[in-house]
Amino acid sequence: MKILVIQQKMIGDVLTSSVLFEALREHYPNAQLDYLINLHTMPVVENNPFIDNYILLKPEIEKRISALWDFTKSIKKRQYDIVIDVYSKLSSNIIAAFSGAKTKISYHKHYTAFLYTYNIKRVSKTNQTCGLAIVNRLQLLEPLGINLTSAKPKIYLTDQELEASKQVLISNNINIEKPLIMISVLGSGAYKTYPYNYMAQVIDQIVTTTDGQILFNYIPKQKADAQAIFDLCKPETQDHIYMGLFGKSIREFLALTAHCTALIGNEGGAVNMAKALNIKTFTIFSTWIDKDTWNIFEEKNVNESVHLKDYKPKLYQDKTEKEMKPQALESYKEFTPDLFEKKLEHFLKTLNK
């Protein structure tokens, strides 16, 4: 038995979809379980004991139809029995359709339904704390006789990675006995990034309440933007921020975050990674992202989140979050830090316990 799971694109999606593998391994203990993902997302599923092979989709393959076709033919040669297409977009439609697998599973779309053996309709509501993103993924296993209502993504760091990151913290004068808070200062784009001046106010509140040590999550090319937020913080707050200490790769970021007390900031892959490491999170959602889908494992004092819709629902009357996307930058102005100041304060006070 050979099974292929397809989940392209974003880090958070790839990490979330990895929950399928533990369930598949339990149901098919002797099966070959492979994961088709984009090259840049590999670090979040590295060392996963339930995945046998990683098939990496490089950027050049998606740019040319001829390259995608050659890639699809290489997948067919692997002779999969089952293909689970979580991504369910044009490129994965092509790969699944021509895979040669007898059983093909994906989400229901009227224009691609003929390509798949089973077409699963997403649910729009759930009472499961794992959230819609996971509930809908687990539904893809039902045609195989696997019925789960919850599962949690996990990240697998080595002892060497954890020890190396600990020594990096100590060498940078971080006291690992005191609160250490990772700030997701920047989203994946402007429409997913809390305004810089507002984020600075949030960081000021974090330091005032916890007297904690602050790390920023950013990559080298974002240094100027991270510095801009640093400059907007109060001088006394800046004294608590270790600007030069950041993960220069995803694995380095993960290893540093594993030693943190909490991660606070913009919704995105960093938040999902922190949750997979069992690190507390406080998430600020973009004004157009569907909170019900991505507030996975919401729990008071453990994983909390805020969305403009929580405080100003009239702005969303008769509109979906995605319809709000063109107005995201304008809507952010309405999402002032004072709206969730008390909620954040309560969350922060639990970090010292």
From TrEMBL:
Xref: Gene3D superfamilies: Glycogen Phosphorylase B (3.40.50.2000)
Annotated transmembrane regions: none
UniProt-listed InterPro entries: Glyco_trans_9 (IPR002201), LPS_LOS_Heptosyltrfase (IPR051199)
SUPFAM superfamilies on file: UDP-Glycosyltransferase/glycogen phosphorylase
Keyword Magnesium: no
Pfam families attached to this UniProt entry: Glyco_transf_9
GO CC annotations, alphabetized: cytosol
An individual GO BP term: lipopolysaccharide core region biosynthetic process
Domain of life: Bacteria
Keywords, alphabetical: Glycosyltransferase, Transferase
Molecular function as annotated in GO: ADP-heptose-lipopolysaccharide heptosyltransferase activity
UniProt protein name: Glycosyltransferase family 9 protein
